[in-house]
Design brief:
This protein is mainly alpha-helical. It has one domain (12-114). Helices cover 75% and strands 0% of the residues.
Length: 122
């Protein structure tokens, strides 16, 4: 693992999470939504972006990656839970963003775990 991934604000996985969250939160501007879909996309997008910012600020925070994976799962199932599967744009946005959030979280998990272990040795 490079020393770069131990520094705050440098991990590409976490930046990808921030961008994904912002895009998800802004997606109601370009896709048709209901009230439930609108607020679901905004809230989950904001939470994903905030989790990414927290992970950027504290690179050894392993639980942040697990939070991201959980938020990704919630984003993926949101169209069924919040009943907006009939809104194709909003539903597909949730499904794609959910899969990406889980994938990014799983990819970042080894890096965060390693950073956590190294930080604990100091």
């Amino acid at each position: 693992m490079s020393q770069q991934s131990l520094k705050a604000w440098t991990r590409p996985h976490d930046w990808a999470e921030v961008v994904l969250g912002i895009l998800l939160a802004l997606s109601p501007l370009v896709v048709e939504t209901s009230t439930a879909a609108l607020w679901t996309l905004i809230i989950l997008g904001a939470l994903i972006a905030l989790d990414g910012l927290a992970s950027l600020a504290m690179p050894g925070m392993v639980y942040g990656e697990w939070v991201q994976i959980g938020l990704g799962v919630l984003t993926f199932i949101a169209p069924w839970v919040m009943s907006y599967t009939d809104l194709d744009g909003a539903a597909w946005t949730s499904w794609v963003a959910g899969v990406l959030a889980v994938a990014i979280g799983l990819a970042a998990l080894p890096v965060a775990t390693s950073a956590h272990r190294i930080a604990g040795q100091h």
